[in-house]
Amino acid sequence: MTDVDFDHHSPDYAENWRAINEDLRSTCPVAHSGAHGGLWVVSRYDDVAAVAHDDATFSSYQELPDGSRNGATIPASALRQVPIEMDPPEFFAYRRLLTPWFSPGAAKQWRPYLREVTTFCVDRVIETGKADLIGDIAAPVPAILTLKLLGLPVEDWRPFSDAVHAMIHTVPGTPGNEAAMTAMFTLIGQITETIARRRAEPADDLLSHLVRAEIDGRLLSDERILEMVTLVIFGGIDTTTNLIGSALEWLDRNPAERTRLRERPELIAPAGEEFLRYFSPVQVLARTATRDCEVGGQPIKAGERLLLSWASANFDEAVFDRPEEVVLDRFPNRHQSFGLGIHRCLGSNLARAEFAVVLEEVLRRLPDYAIDASGARHYPTIGIGNGWITLPATFTPAAPEGSEALA
Ligand code: HEM
Questions:
Q1: Is residue 401 part of a domain?
Q2: With a 6 A CB cut-off, is 83 part of the ligand 1 pocket?
Q3: Which end of the chain has fewer CB atoms within 10 angstroms, the N or the C?
Q4: Is the dihedral of CA 156, 161, 166, 167 positive or negative?
């Protein structure tokens, strides 16, 4: 077996991920890399789908005899997240507890609040004629909605957002990543205190639902609730910011398409799907083989790690016509950006609502925004999340629309 030179956490991958994936698909679609203790990169659409749908053969969570674990990321995170890192049959009860909070109906009900939050964010910058499209708009909107949904204080959005973004775009084991972890652990301390308060005095939020919920007649432990809350925070905060940021940056470089989107708002929904495909905000996630098996004809041994590349599958020429092109109204668009199978993204309805509202508002209120490319900074490494740290922009100043402080 010859190893390929592949590391999703390397700066080279961040810069050249589309070319690297294309090369893998055409030369070695199930390729072994020595990175992070060894992993198989699965890069073709059908192979990724087959693994994601076979949760008996490919596990999302294993505890190992040496005390370490194999979870949904490579390398494993210090924080377990549930139910993304859990297998059937246990998995179903936890997923069921969350499902009603993320249904299409629930996402629809959040739209007026999303509009209010977006108006608030745009109001704070619109008179100045300049903004960081990430720090002022694309980061706060998803973070505020996520905290509101959980029942955590929305005014704390920035420390949550900063810690999650930093954890995603720094390489595990580096000082930057450890600093982000420390910040995250402080926030987790705050969440633990809120769990205790909600046990005493429940409110009408997801945290209160979880402290009252029972599985097999027993209340959930604080630890289990934290694992679920951590997933909603990581799932809710970085991913959608990355989608919105990548879309705004692309529309800056493609002004005719920006005009088309502004004039035909019915294109915003299909454009969201295309940006999901083209940028794959969550690029890869992992599984572990539970038995000796084959993927795409390649023998895999029990215990070996697999990296499912949604990002590569989304460019598979066998499925997508002209995959290198952004086609705002691409149809059909069976991208894998929300995953497939039992772990398919629970937050997809919310993510789509957030994307649509923010795009509508930015195109309506900052129609001539121009990004200062020299100040724009992409994530230096991608690892899991593909996004922007900062997108400084200028635009014609205008009047605020009168949003009050956040509630
Ligand atoms: C652009 C936005 C988003 C993208 C690209 C994305 C991507 C994904 C992917 C690829 C998975 C599959 C995991 C796997 O197969 O191992 C997933 C699962 C999940 N996502 Fe998202 N996500 C997004 C937004 C959100 C939001 C807004 C939330 C919540 C507020 C969320 C919560 C979750 C949860 C709870 C799961 C785990 C589901 C399970 O294991 O049953 N996601 N997401």
A1: no
A2: yes
A3: N
A4: positive
Say yes or no to pLDDT of 66 above 90. Answer: yes
Please provide the average confidence, as pLDDT, over all residues in the chain. 96
Residue whose CA is closest, atom 6 of ligand 1?
338
Ligand 1 lined by 307 (C-beta under 6 Å): no
226: amino acid identity, one letter: L
Pocket test for ligand 1, best of 60, 103, 239, 355 (most atoms within 8 A of CB): 239
Burial class of 47 by CB neighbour count within 10 A (0 to 12, 13 to 18, 19+): buried
The residue range of the domain holding 306 is: 11-394
Answer whether residue 404 shows pLDDT above 80. Answer: no
Q: Which tokens go with 287?
A: 């599984």
Query: Stretch 179-204: mean pLDDT, rounded?
Result: 93
CA 87 to CA 56: how far, in whole Å? 8
Give the tens place of pLDDT for each residue, 114-132. 999 999 999 999 999 999 9
Domain annotation covers residue 4: no
What integer pLDDT is reported at residue 402 of this predicted model? 83
**DSSP H or E segment with residue 307:** strand 305-309
403 falls within a domain: no
> Is the pLDDT assigned to residue 366 strictly greater than 70?
yes
Nearest CA to ligand 1 atom 17: 345
